[in-house]
């Protein structure tokens, strides 16, 4: 059996000197892929009211757009950032509806709930799509993308999920981008739970656009997302959107002309995001954030392995965002009881989304560090004892499932 504590070379942990303070109000840690536990100063930034048309708030909007482009590596000025009110899924829909022409055809790379949601969204938008369905967790590979693009000249766009949090897999976005560019198609990326921690540099990854959200790896609070797109793509999107509120071109045009959001902006969320960006920079930017998250993951996986828990994914595909663990085979283990016991000890975890075997997920992002992750492992051990579970080893079918992944990928 492979070691559960090997680090993936692409996202291996580096030393992190950041120490995260405990939630000031005593609330549980959110070990989820967002919303997540935020810094007290990020929450505190929301204690002031802002006028949405005022120059101070317009300056905040301009700052966040510039800062996000810096994180994306847009040194050539080829891209622009368009914030949009709403959840991450609003931004995904806005990107799809604005950047894919009505006569376009998308190849959707799906290996979990969020890839499938993209296909569903395209159906609502009336955009043609072909789905490469890899099941619960198998990664789409560049060679597969090339083959499908060769076979179907109708395809104009490829749509990929960067980190599929339903399993915790980090998809091979670099090879997907290379394959898409090689075949002369355009790539759209849902980087909702990756951007800001996992590298996504537009100088190295050719893409037409990508989306992310305030309440993910930048560690802000919910309320808006953002589209980072080529300026040429934004210009071509004029008059294309299915929706007034989700029209990326119109939002971009108005922001560039007036500095304002078209409709009431989430002022408090923007203020919190400005503080979150400051903390992100202080931590060392994307590289510093990745170091802490990857270390969190490695400490968690090693500790859980000692209890008998096994992760779904081998090290090659295991993201630093969230880890899926197989549920123990022990007959006394019931996830609902385990969840409540963990919550009583100050940790909110996530149920699993696999269809083949029972599982659960523990997030590694937000204002948590390795000391918190060790406490998470201790809480898991205490919860197992309370349930009368003496070992957390998964059923044999789970290990076979992981073996199949290793062989197929």
TrEMBL record:
Catalytically driven reaction(s): (2-aminoethyl)phosphonate + pyruvate = phosphonoacetaldehyde + L-alanine
PTM sites of type N6-(pyridoxal phosphate)lysine: 216
Binding site for substrate: 361
Occurrences of domain Aminotransferase class V (ranges): 140-321
Gene3D superfamilies found in the cross-reference section: Aspartate Aminotransferase, domain 1, Type I PLP-dependent aspartate aminotransferase-like (Major domain)
UniProt record similarity statement: Belongs to the class-V pyridoxal-phosphate-dependent aminotransferase family. PhnW subfamily.
Protein name in UniProt: 2-aminoethylphosphonate--pyruvate transaminase
Organism (species): Paraburkholderia polaris
């Amino acid at each position: 059996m492979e070691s559960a504590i090997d680090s993936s070379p692409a996202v291996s942990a580096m030393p992190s000197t950041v120490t995260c303070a405990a939630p000031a109000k005593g609330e549980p840690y959110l070990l989820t892929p967002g919303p997540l536990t935020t810094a007290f100063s990020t929450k505190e930034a929301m204690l002031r009211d802002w006028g949405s048309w005022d120059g101070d708030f317009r300056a905040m909007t301009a700052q966040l757009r510039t800062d996000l482009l810096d994180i994306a590596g847009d040194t050539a000025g080829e891209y622009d950032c368009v914030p949009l009110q709403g959840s991450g899924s609003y931004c995904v829909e806005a990107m799809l509806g604005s950047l894919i022409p009505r006569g376009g055809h998308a190849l959707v790379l799906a290996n979990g709930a969020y890839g499938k949601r993209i296909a569903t969204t395209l159906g609502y938008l009336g955009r043609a799509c072909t789905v490469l369905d890899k099941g619960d967790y198998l990664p789409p590979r560049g060679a597969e993308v090339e083959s499908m693009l060769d076979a179907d000249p109708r395809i104009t766009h490829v749509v990929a999920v960067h980190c599929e949090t339903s399993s915790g897999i980090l998809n091979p976005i670099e090879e997907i981008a290379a394959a898409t560019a090689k075949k002369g198609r355009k790539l759209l990326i849902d980087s909702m739970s990756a951007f800001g921690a996992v590298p996504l540099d537009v100088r190295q990854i050719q893409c037409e656009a990508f989306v992310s959200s305030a309440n993910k790896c930048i560690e802000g609070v919910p309320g808006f997302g953002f589209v980072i797109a080529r300026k040429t793509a934004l210009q071509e999107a004029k008059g294309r959107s299915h929706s007034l509120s989700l029209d990326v071109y119109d939002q971009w045009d108005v922001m560039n002309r007036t500095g304002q959001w078209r409709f009431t902006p989430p002022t408090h969320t923007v203020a919190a995001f400005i503080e979150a960006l400051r903390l992100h920079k202080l931590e060392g930017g994307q590289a510093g954030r990745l170091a802490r998250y990857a270390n969190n993951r490695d400490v968690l996986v090693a500790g859980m392995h000692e209890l008998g828990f096994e992760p779904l994914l081998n090290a090659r595909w295991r993201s630093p965002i969230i880890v899926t663990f197989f549920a123990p085979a022990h007959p006394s283990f019931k996830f609902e009881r385990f969840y409540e016991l963990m919550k009583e000890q100050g940790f909110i975890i996530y149920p699993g989304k696999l269809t083949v075997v029972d599982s659960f997920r523990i997030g590694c992002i937000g204002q948590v560090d390795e000391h918190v992750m060790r406490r998470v492992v201790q809480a898991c051990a205490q919860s197992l004892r309370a349930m009368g579970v003496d070992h957390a080893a998964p059923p044999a079918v789970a290990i076979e499932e992981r073996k199949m992944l290793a062989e197929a990928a």
